[in-house]
């Protein structure tokens, strides 16, 4: 009985295998047929598109056959413009531009277009805008120049560039004019009287040079500094406290001054030069200030240590410096 059952099961398995195999074959045939149908359908669609395109072409030919040559030419031109426009729009989108935004900003585009036609690149325009904004911010931060017109700003910038090129900026010091006895600029011994040669050179070449320096540096003050060597002066009574100001103003002759020491001699000689400048019309709007360095300052702006009492002609000198007037301070 058991053998019969085993035989029956074996037969069933064989039958099932045959059925499964036949089912697979049927599925494979159906899949093949489906693939063929898809290919045929794709070909049919392609044929339909070609036929549609051909129909459109034939229809256009039919329509154009009834038009005049001028109408056909106009139609061709319009078609070419349409194709070109479509190409331009495609390129704009590829470059990240929005045609719609350009339409709304047509006025701005029209403003920029002349610059592009002159060869200015978009990058240069962007840099110019950035620089302009930075300049506007800088000008806004400067209250003293924020109200100036562009022309005035350009003028000031030009003056600044010219000063920078010539080394005469606002913070550059004007040159010092050094007139030493060793170079031929002398006074009478122990006196503030100018020699005729020295006085003539002061009125001509030296005054002209001082005026030029004042104009170049926008200066309004001239400082005349008298320097001496360390040789002691003979004992005498000084009258500078009483007569110095009258001599400077021209009320008293320079020869009446009697300094008692080197500090007084330096001041008296500075007054002698300052008085000559004050009588020159070119210095009518200039403040001329006499000062004394006495025997304290060596040439080159070094302070003396008091160890040289010899006859030093290079130390006996007049220095002329120019500067701008000081602004009065609020108490």
Automatic annotation (TrEMBL):
Keywords: Cell projection, Cilium, Coiled coil, Flagellum. This is Flagellar motor protein MotB. It comes from the Bacteria. Residues 27-61 form a coiled coil. SUPFAM superfamilies: OmpA-like (SSF103088). Residues 308-331 have a biased composition (Basic and acidic residues). It comes from Aureimonas phyllosphaerae. InterPro entries: OmpA-like_sf. Residues 299-331 are annotated as: Disordered. Gene3D superfamilies: OmpA-like domain.
